[in-house]
């Protein structure tokens, strides 16, 4: 029996020894997504878009010396703890060069504060939209390819006011995403002379929100502005508000633009529901991405896919530019997308690689916008208001 | 705010929620008083029951209530299996080992659910159900079913524990396992019976939670704290205490919105738990044994 164990242990040891000598070291980027949790329905297409960028890199000659770029997926669970766990694993165990993600603001703040900033690893989030991320003391290592909610909240307030909404109640999920968005919205809506007749945070994942809704409805507003996630508590609240007739009209922001709402509640119940979400500006870059993503079997209209693609493609460009040096990636990221140099569109990896090797300056024009980062690592954004038509969301109007 | 509004939007949801907590808390209390440990996988076992029912609903096109008994039996059998496969080996070790093991089981069950059913929100019935209006009282059918089921379960369980031979055996074992063994009670059978009952009730808590809200892979885990608060509040080892505790926690959570900012709703269960442990650790009904 004992010899058997020794033989088994020896065999395992030999196997690990063999496995740990790869032909060529891969370059890894961490793809931290909210695979489980409140945005679970959005995460798969976002990760697919990031993987498309990685696939293109590998098809067009690979990264650095023809090495393979590998995306390591981690589940950030859309909460601070999950984000930290996933980032720790990606940085310390997988040894990734760049983190693309996490997807939710709370996870971004926690993972950057406790993992990526101390380790000096560059983080590019495609969907962490909280205004808090702008003010991070990050040694210039935290970037995002989506714009801050400070902008979205204000744009939504202006659009609603123009559309004739005068008196609204605001319910927001009690995290960095919800409070950032709600406060920006409230400030602008009140400046414009609108009335906020109820303003309350709620804790996620409770079974009943009827008492919360009753409190909010007491203010006499006919519209509920709900800053939450459509796969999580947002769905529960919207369902209970509709069932009990608390409000007549409903407004959401990017987190609420989820197919789950239409699937679970039915489009016939969502006729008075509108939601804002970031959109790509019509451009050659967006067309190039749409075509490639469609050919890859993805849905280019899904939320945050353009920003996810840009984040991963920019990460690859920065690694190439920095020559694989992890500490130099943040600086390289600014160089490859600062508005100066030869234009690189989505998918043009071979061209970019040649130019970088020749020492020519390049400028990536992303699917979601030009992606020229400002001093805080933020980008401006374009938003549109969506309504439900049939089984999907349809653009109503651009938001200014 | 008038009285009907208080009743419709604060008390009613609280009572329905309380019934769901109570169904889970009864299982927790049974396990605690007979096996003497806190079962942390109880929430995820409830999730499993809810998703089993979903499989039956979507597979055979029956109503969730028809799927309930099957899901209860399925979960009960799985609970017995988990006990045999994992907890049984730890029976003679310090109880804290089993408690920690149950945390591991919770993660395992959740992982299985996420692999099989995915992580998206699901529901038994698509669309929304507007409540019926009974003289100003707005109630949905599913809320009536939830409350009726809970009452039926408690009455049946009290009769079973008080009158039947096996019920008495369970109480005897909860009082003193060694003495029960000496007087000819088969401890293993009592343990199986406990898991069957706890697992079945657990599944029903999950199904009713799913029926009243949505099914999510984390739904049971989020219910764990209120269930434990309900158990301790009512007095550990008391079935009627678990029901009372569940109702108090559920109603208190909803009413707390009236006096506290709504983001502190979740904290209500914590506060009740802490206060009870400080003031009257034995619980409202002085629990100790069944």
Overview of the molecule:
The complex is a heterodimer of chains A (400) and B (290). With 400 residues, chain A is α/β, with parallel strands linked by helices. Chain A folds into 2 domains: 27-148 and 283-364, 3-Layer(aba) Sandwich (Rossmann fold); 150-280 and 382-399, Rossmann fold, CATH 3.40.50.2300. Chain A contains 13 helices and 14 strands. Chain A has helices spanning 2-19, 43-59, 80-94, 105-119, 149-162, 176-191, 210-217, 233-244, 259-265, 284-295, 305-321, 329-335, 349-358; strands at 27-33, 69-75, 98-100, 122-125, 142-144, 167-173, 195-202, 223-227, 249-252, 273-278, 342-344, 362-364, 383-389, 392-399. In chain A, the strands form 3 sheets. A 7-stranded mixed sheet of chain A has the order 7-6-8-9-10-13-14, with helices on both faces. In chain A, strand 11 (342-344), helix 13 and strand 12 (362-364) form a beta-alpha-beta unit. Residues 16-23 of chain A have low confidence and may be disordered. With 290 residues, chain B is an all-alpha fold. Chain B has a single domain (3-124, 142-279), classed as ABC transporter involved in vitamin B12 uptake, BtuC. Chain B is built from 11 helices and 2 strands; from the N terminus they run H-H-H-H-E-E-H-H-H-H-H-H-H. Chain B has a two-stranded antiparallel ribbon with strand order 1-2. In chain B, helix 2 (42-60) packs across helix 9. The longest helix of chain B is centred in the N-terminal third of the chain and has 33 residues, at 3-35. Chain B is globular and about 60 Å long. The model of chain B has no long low-confidence stretch (mean pLDDT 91). The A-B interface holds A 35-37, 40-41, 174, 200-203, 205-208, 210-215, 218, 231-232, 235-236, 239, 242-245, 260, 263-266, 268-269 and B 1, 5, 8-10, 12-14, 16-17, 20, 114, 118-123, 126-131, 138, 140, 209, 212-214, 216-219, 222-223, 253-255, 257-258, 261-266.
């Amino acid at each position: 029996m004992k010899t058997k164990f020794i033989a088994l242990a020896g065999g395992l040891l030999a196997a690990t020894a063999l496995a740990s000598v790869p032909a060529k070291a891969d370059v890894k980027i961490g793809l931290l997504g909210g695979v489980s949790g409140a945005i679970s329905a959005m995460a798969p297409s976002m990760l697919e878009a990031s993987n498309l960028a990685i696939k293109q890199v590998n098809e067009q000659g690979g990264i650095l010396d023809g090495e393979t770029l590998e995306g390591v997926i981690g589940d950030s669970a859309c909460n601070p703890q999950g984000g930290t766990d996933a980032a720790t694993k990606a940085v310390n165990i997988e040894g990734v060069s760049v983190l693309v993600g996490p997807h939710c603001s709370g996870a971004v703040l926690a993972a950057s504060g406790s993992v990526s900033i101390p380790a000096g690893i560059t983080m590019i989030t495609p969907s962490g939209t909280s205004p808090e991320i702008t003010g991070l003391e990050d040694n210039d290592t935290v970037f995002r390819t989506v714009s801050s909610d400070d902008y979205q909240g204000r744009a939504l307030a202006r659009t609603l006011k123009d559309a004739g909404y005068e008196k609204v109640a605001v319910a927001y999920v009690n995290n960095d995403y919800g409070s950032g968005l709600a406060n920006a919205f409230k400030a602008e809506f009140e400046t414009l002379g609108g009335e906020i007749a109820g303003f309350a945070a709620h804790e996620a994942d409770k079974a009943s929100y009827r008492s919360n809704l009753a409190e909010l409805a007491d203010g006499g507003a006919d519209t509920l502005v709900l800053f939450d996630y459509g796969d999580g508590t947002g769905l529960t609240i919207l369902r209970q508000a509709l069932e009990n007739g608390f409000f007549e009209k409903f407004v959401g922001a990017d987190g609420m633009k989820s197919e789950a709402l239409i699937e679970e509640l039915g489009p016939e119940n969502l006729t008075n529901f509108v939601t804002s979400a970031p959109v790509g500006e019509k451009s050659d870059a967006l067309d190039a991405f749409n075509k490639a993503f469609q050919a890859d079997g993805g849905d280019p209209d899904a939320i945050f896919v353009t920003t996810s693609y840009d984040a991963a493609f920019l990460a690859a460009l920065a690694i190439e530019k920095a020559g694989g040096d992890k500490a130099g990636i943040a600086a390289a990221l600014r160089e490859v997308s600062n508005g100066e140099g030869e234009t690189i569109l989505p998918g043009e990896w071979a061209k970019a690689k040649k130019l970088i090797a020749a020492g020519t300056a390049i400028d990536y024009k992303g699917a979601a916008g030009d992606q020229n980062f400002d001093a805080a690592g933020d980008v401006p954004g374009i938003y549109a208001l969506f309504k439900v038509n049939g089984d999907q969301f349809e653009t109503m109007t651009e938001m200014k | 705010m008038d009285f009907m509004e208080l009743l419709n939007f604060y008390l009613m949801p609280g009572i329905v929620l309380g019934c769901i907590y109570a169904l889970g808390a009864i299982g927790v209390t049974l396990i605690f008083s007979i096996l003497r440990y806190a079962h942390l996988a109880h929430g995820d076992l409830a999730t499993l029951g809810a998703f089993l029912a979903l499989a039956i609903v979507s597979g055979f096109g029956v109503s969730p209530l028809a799927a309930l008994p099957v899901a209860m039996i399925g979960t009960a059998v799985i609970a017995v299996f988990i006990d045999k496969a994992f907890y049984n080996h730890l029976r003679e070790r310090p109880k804290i080992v089993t408690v920690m093991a149950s945390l591991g089981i919770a993660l395992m069950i959740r992982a299985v659910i996420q692999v099989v059913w995915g992580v998206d929100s699901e529901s038994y019935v698509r669309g929304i159900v507007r409540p019926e209006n009974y003289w100003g009282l707005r109630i949905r059918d599913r809320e009536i079913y939830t409350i009726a089921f809970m009452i039926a379960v408690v009455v049946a369980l009290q009769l079973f524990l008080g009158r039947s031979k096996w019920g008495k055996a369970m109480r005897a074992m909860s009082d003193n396992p060694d003495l029960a063994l000496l007087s000819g009670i088969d401890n293993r059978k009592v343990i199986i019976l406990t898991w069957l009952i706890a697992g079945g009730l657990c599944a029903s808590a999950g199904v009713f939670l799913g029926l009243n809200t949505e099914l999510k892979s984390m739904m049971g885990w989020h219910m764990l704290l209120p269930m434990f608060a309900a158990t301790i509040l009512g007095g550990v080892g008391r079935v009627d205490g678990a029901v009372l505790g569940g109702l108090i926690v559920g109603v208190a959570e909803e009413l707390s919105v009236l006096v506290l900012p709504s983001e502190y709703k979740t904290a209500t269960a914590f506060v009740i738990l802490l206060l009870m442990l400080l003031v009257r650790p034995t619980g409202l009904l002085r629990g100790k044994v069944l």
